Every structure is written in C-alpha cells, then in structure tokens.
Amino acid sequence: MSTARNAILNRLRQAGAQPLPVNNPDYPLWHPDSPAEPLDKLTELLEQNHAEVLRLNRHELVTTLRAHIEQAALKHIATGTGGEFLAEITRALAGCAEQRPFNQPLEQWKDELFDRVDAGITGCHGAIAATGTLVLWPGPAEPRTLSLVPPSHIAILKASTLYTNLPAMMADQGWAKGIPTNLLLVSGPSKTADIQQTLAYGAHGPKRLLVLILEDA
Amino acid sequence: MSSAIRIYPAKPDKVYVYATCLVDMFSPQSGLDAIRLLELAGVEVIYVPKQTCCGQPAYSSGYEDDAKTSALSQMALFPKPWPVIVLSGSCGGMMHHHYRRLFAGGKNEQEVNQFCDRVFELTEFLVRVCRIRLQDRGPATSVVLHTSCAARREMKVHVTGRQLLSQLDQVELREQAYESECCGFGGTFSVRHPAISEAMVQDKTRHLNDTRAAQLISADWGCLLNINGALEYQKQEMKGIHLASFLLGRLEGDHA
Amino acid sequence: MHNQPQLFHPQAEAALADQELRANFRGAMDYLRDKRQAAFTDPDEEAAIRDRAEAIRRRCLSKLPALLEQLEANCIANGIRVHWAEDAAQANAIFTDIIQSHGGTLAVKGKSMVSEEIELNHQLTKEGISCLESDMGEYIVQLGDETPSHIIMPAIHKNKRQVADLFAEHVPGFEHTLDVDRLIQTGRNVLRQKFREAQVGISGVNFAVAETGTLCLVENEGNGRMCTTVPEVHIAVTGIEKVVELLADVPPLFSALTRSATGQAITTYFNMISGPRKDDELDGPKEVHLVLLDNGRSQAFVDEEMRQTLQCIRCGACMNHCPVYTRIGGHAYGTVYPGPIGKIISPHLMGLEATRELPTASSLCGACGEVCPVRIPIPHLLQRLRREAKQEPRPGVPALRGQGAAKSKLEAFVWRSFGLLTSKPALYRLLSWCATRCRSLIPAKLGPWTRCRTAPKPAARTLRVLMAERNK
C-alpha cells in the first residue's frame, strides 16, 4: 500500500505545519506527584485497587509465600525458568503445590495454562509509588502470560527498585534507548465497570493480585 | 493554553452600558435597574440609544459576515475609552471574546481587540472593578441563582453573581442540583432542536423548583426567557428576575 | 440497519422518549463526572496537566508527517510490519489479507474505536472470519447487534437487567441473575475460550511512540493484553493522529487520559508493545502488524484551526459533561464517535452532507471545552463547522467534503436582514416599536418554542423609550 502511504504523507506535508519545539516556553512543565513516603503510598494505592500487599524481609519470603499458597489453596503454580527469586519460589512450593515452570512455547501448553494453573509468580522490574504500579519486564525467563492467564498473580518486588513516578523511572533507566517487547504496568487485579458502573474484579486477567514487597531488598 | 487571567482596571468615572436586545425588548426594567445600580456604585452611566444587538445569533448560526456587520455597527457606537458594561454574560462573551475571533487577522484587528478589552459583564464589573459593598435593607428571603453558560465558561464570572448575593445578610442562596448545566436555550438551538432543548429546560426548571427558593434570579435574559417561559407553561409560581433588579430591590428595601 | 447521522432528529426524539435509556445515561454520566472531579482535586494541577497534554499533542501534530515516517522506521526495526490505509475499504482489505494468509477464521478484538469506524467486524464476517469483541462492554454490544453508545463505556446505555436479559437470550446455560459479578464471570468464561482458540488478535492503539516504535494500550480488564499476547498474530489499527514523538510524552498524556475518562490515577494495565515474540521468547504474537488509517483525518489536518480536532486522546470527558449527550445518549447521533468530539470529527470522516445537523445540535454551553484534557476548543470548532456547512468555499481556506451542504437561501436572507437591521438603528427602532405596540398580538403558539414554553411577550415600552423619558 505504498501508494496510500505516499498519498497520505503528501497531503499532510502540503499543510505546511510549522514544527513546534520540544521545550515550548509557552507551556509550563508538569510535575507528576512525588510521594514523600513512596513505599507507604505504593502499598496504599495497590490496596485501594484491590491488590493484597504483604511487606516482609527477604529471609521471610519462602515462609510467607508458602503460607499464602496454602491458605489460598493454590495447587498448580506457574513460574519462570529464571529470575532472582526462582530458588526461593521453588523452595516455597516444594511439598505444598505443583510447580509448572514456563519452559516451553505457550502453544504447547496453552490448555494447561488456561485451565489448570491456579497462579503465576513473577518478579518485578520495579514499581511506581505515585500511581501504585508494578513494572513488569517480561522476557524468556519470565514470559508475559505468567502475569495474565492464571486467575491469581503473585508478584515479588524489591523495595529498592521503587521510583516515585513514571517519568523519573523512564528517564533514569533510559527506557527510550531500549525496552522489552512487552513492557507492562500493572496496578491491580483485572477489573471492569462496564455493567452499570458496578466494579467487578477478574474480568479477563487475574482476579487476585498478591504483591510481596521485600523491604530489605 | 489556558486563557490568561484578566487584569482589572481601577474604577472609572464613566461607563457605557450595553443593555442587549433582549433587555431592551423584553425587560427594560432590568436595564433601568442595572443602570441605577451602576450609578449607586459611583460611576456615571452613558446609555447610547442607537445600540441594537451584538450579532451573536448570526454568529452562532454560522453567518459570520452578517455577524460582522452587526459587530462593526455596535463597536462604532462606543468610541470613548470607557468600559462597556454588558447586562448579559452571553452577549458579553460575544463582545469580549468572539469579536476578536471574527476580526482576527483583519486590518482593524487592533482596534477590535482594544474594544474587546473594554467589555465587562455587569456582575464582574460591580465586584472586580467597582468593588461594590451592598447594604441589605430587605426582609429575609431565599433565592436560587441561575448562571448562564457564557458567564460561567466564556467570561469566567460565575463567582461574581454569588459574591454579590453573599453580601446580602438577609438573603439565603439555595443550591440547585446540576447547577452548572445548561438550561437548554442556546439561541437558535432551542428552535432547531426543540425536543432536546425541552428536555434540558424541563430538568432545569425541576431542579430550580426543588430548591423551594422564594425567588429565581439570573443575570442573563436569554436564559430567563427560556426558563420563565417554561415555568409559566408549567403553571409554576416561580418566576425569574434579573439579578440587577433583585439587588436594587434589596438596597432600596422595597422588594419582598 | 444502525442509526445514521442524517436521521439525527427522529433518533434523538426516540431516545428522549425512552425513560429507561434516559435514566441509564443520567446515572452513568453522574458517575463518570463525579469520578473525574475526584481525580482533579487541585485546580492548579488540573490546569498544569491539561497544559502539558495540549502542548504535547500540538507539538506532535505539528510534525505529524515526519513522526509517522519515524514511527514506521522504528516499528520496522522492531519487527512490526506497517501498513497504510486511506479509507475503511483499504484498511479492511489489509486485515482480510493478513488473516487469510494465516488461514485465520477467528479473531478476538480488544476495544478499538477505529475498528468500529471501518466496520471491521462486519467486513470480516463477509470474508468468513468471525471477529469477537472481548471488552466486556463491547461484547455486550456485539451480542445485542448494537454499536457502542460511548467511546470508553460502550454498553453504558444498558442497565444490568438488560444485560442479564441479553445473556439469557444468547449465552447457553446462563442462569438469569442481576449480580454483576456473576454477569462478568459469564462473559469471562465465554471469552476465555476464544482467547486461546483465536489465530488473530486485534487491538487499537492509545499512543504510538515514534521514538521507540512502541504501541501503547490502556485498559482495565486484561482483554487487550489477551488479544495482543495469546494469538499468534496481532494486528493493531490506529488513526494517523495517534503518534507521539517521545516516550517521555506518554506519562502526561496517559495521566490526562485516565483521570479525564474514568477518574483513575492509572488504569490496571498499561501495555507497551515494541515488537513480536523474539526467538528466545516463549509467548507473545509471532507477527505484529500496525495499520495506519487516514479516513478523513488529513482533511482536518490541513486546516490549522480544525487540526485541533486531532489533538483528541479519546477520553470521552466531553460526552460525559455534555447536556445533550446526557439526554439523548450515544446512538442518536448515528456516528461511531458520539457527543461533542463526534460532532467535530465525524464531518471529516463522513463529510458535511451526512453530518450537517450534528454541529447545530449544541447549545454551545462550553461544558465540553471546559473538561477537554487537551483543550480542544470544541465550541469554536462547532461554530466553524456550522459556518462551513452553510457557505461556499472561500479563497485560502481548504474546502471540506460536503462544504455548503446545509446552504439555504431563505436562511441566508434572514441573517443578511438581521445584519442590516442591527446595523441600522432607525430601522431597528421602528421594528422594536412595532413589536411593543403589537405585543398583545403575539400568538400563543410560536412553533417549536411554545411546545414547552409560553410565548415571550415584549414589554410595553423599550428601554430606549424609557431612557429617553428618564433623561428628559
């Protein structure tokens, strides 16, 4: 459709619009919210958005995770094949739930992931306090559907990776120079208000989101 | 970019009054009362009898050239550098904002802009330029205020009417539901889309009536023509008057 | 047959007469207005974010052709295939080709107003491809063979009972309930099957980032992620105006969008897609396509004033605050985009001939412009379109499709006379004198005005006469 391309671009060019500068002095800068107590703000907002948040130290991760899995009666749990917490996750699951590592292409175990798996566990690339948001950075070791298809998502976050707001994180980490194929911001379990403005959780994605914040990591 | 904040001049000695065609034709008493009020505020009021209509009906119907004819003739009537006080937010919006747009890029752009800078809505002028202080001499009563969309959103003077009322000790201002929603007048809109306009004015009159206020007031005769017409059609007791008439009555103590 | 803009008047009257519909919209609009208000508690901050969002959109449009080329180049570098379509027919042909080349028979779609604009579902059905809506609201609308009545809340015209009735009719095994959780679970279960079966996932785009070749999607439900992650092929479609220059432009626009739309500080998901599955990845689509659609947008673009129409980020705040939309709902407009933004964009998409009534269906109350997060001067643009609908093209001003479609010799005469009358004080005086003399002769019925009002009655004497007496 290169004819369409050229026709469209030609019409647009003929308008002769004058390019405006990036730093336009006519407009003030926007300063996004920078919460003073970012960890508390993150917790508060995640909880407001129906996520469950537990704050702990790293040495408590295995026992906390196991306790949650037992209490929520999660039987089949999908995990990544790598990532910083894999060893701890594996220990937590040992003897209490079946661990299903995401070690094959989605197509080969789609039915199982959709029908049998109760929860997916992932790490987080970081988080954003101002909006109560987890930043997921999926890749081969932690594929993107881990946080999407199972009815529960358990996310492990290191407090040290928390930023006050999204622009700060983007700029500091140079996102414009390279981001994964599917960078995700997640701010709670899946929800909808499409029927008579009544909020319901678990529309298509996870119904439950548990965030384990490692305060000393 | 958000429109700049208006900087107000010191109180002048003389002002022009622009009564608007609706006041001229349907409620001249509002015009007399507004003029008296301005005089009490300490300014000399010049009424130019040749004034007709600001041209807004033609403008909002898409006939800009005809609106320009009206606009040019009106601007020519007010040659001295005195403020032009408009007794309606809607006509004020036309003369303060839309005249600029009509003549933008034209040879008389600068003169037009200078004229537009001199245009003030009545309540805006009383509060922000005259800094009027009102002494309430009337008996205790309750009112509900309808502010026109143009006063609210074009002139951004929705607070000045309330500020004037708040100076009256014996007057309770009641709040109606959906206060900021349009009454459904919109000039030619009310006859071009009568069913929608009807739905809007029926909701508006219901919300006004629900306040059970003793008096309905507005500083815009366009809205009042619509709202009063609907109230009368529904055989309601409530009937709106111009804010200027109400204020003057309170100062003179002869209105209930 | 769905509604048409040509039939705006009867459609609006029918909507006004439907009390259940009126109640559904009033309730929904009240909800959305309150949500927005709660999201902007500080007026200074609200002004700042709107200024920023406007500045970004204006800047991006000022470089639109260059940014589109940059977007294309960076998408291609990321492995995203880019297609261009002048109109709906070309866009649909691109979709059909891609889907058929994969032997696809089922597509799942996330919310996309552009796909509504090109009537994609309908066209794909003709080619033997079923295209299932997966946003809950869109799914409900599709089940009822309707169109969305709001751009972000598509099924806002229905209450839960009406949704339950619809499910009872169409979803096998559904037990009638008014419990919204159970209604949502019903939709979830049906659609979950489809996500894994579909060969193709379709989505819109909220922001397409030229700098990085990234497609951003905003959503709460997760169906957008499903559509763009689970099927082997993902096709995104967007209007050419959605491109932004920098990744850093995204956060302020995203914040302005969610707060204006639903009063959320952020949505549950923000999905940034920068390419198909890589060789070492285990999920994600193997192919990602981007379809860039013009469909009349370049017409708006060439006129500097109307270009502002394209600043829109599709939040829906203008309709939520519109007294006309609140009363007649989205379907009465007969256009894909209803409400104030619909009145100013549809004439470019469909021509002024078909849409000539829409710009007049506003009291110009300005509520839309007051809440627009990118400060589109909607009342001005309505005014401008009223003018273009009435008048022949002028030199130096690009003509619109359907320019002058509402031209009327009678109306032109009336306003010419008005101009004359208001600029000739003697004539005006004579006429107003006649009106006051004949005030008792004003008929009780004055056409449309008196369907709900009494006829206005001129005063006995005009202000001019009274002032002459006062000054004696």
Automatic annotation (TrEMBL), chain A:
Domain LUD, first and last residues per copy: 40-214
UniProt xrefs under InterPro entries: FTHF_cligase-like_sf, LUD_dom, NagB/RpiA_transferase-like
PANTHER family: LACTATE UTILIZATION PROTEIN C (PTHR43682:SF1)
Protein's name according to its UniProt entry: LUD domain-containing protein
Automatic annotation (TrEMBL), chain B:
Domain Cysteine-rich: 16-95, 143-227
Membrane spanning residue stretches: none
Pfam families: CCG
Top-level taxon: Bacteria
Protein name per the record: (Fe-S)-binding protein
TrEMBL record, chain C:
Xref: PROSITE patterns: 4FE4S_FER_1, 4FE4S_FER_2
Domain of life: Bacteria
UniProt name for this protein: LutB/LldF family L-lactate oxidation iron-sulfur protein
Organism, scientific name: Zobellella aerophila
Domain 4Fe-4S ferredoxin-type: 298-331
Record key words, sorted: 4Fe-4S, Electron transport, Iron, Iron-sulfur, Metal-binding, Repeat, Transport
NCBIfam families xrefs: LutB/LldF family L-lactate oxidation iron-sulfur protein
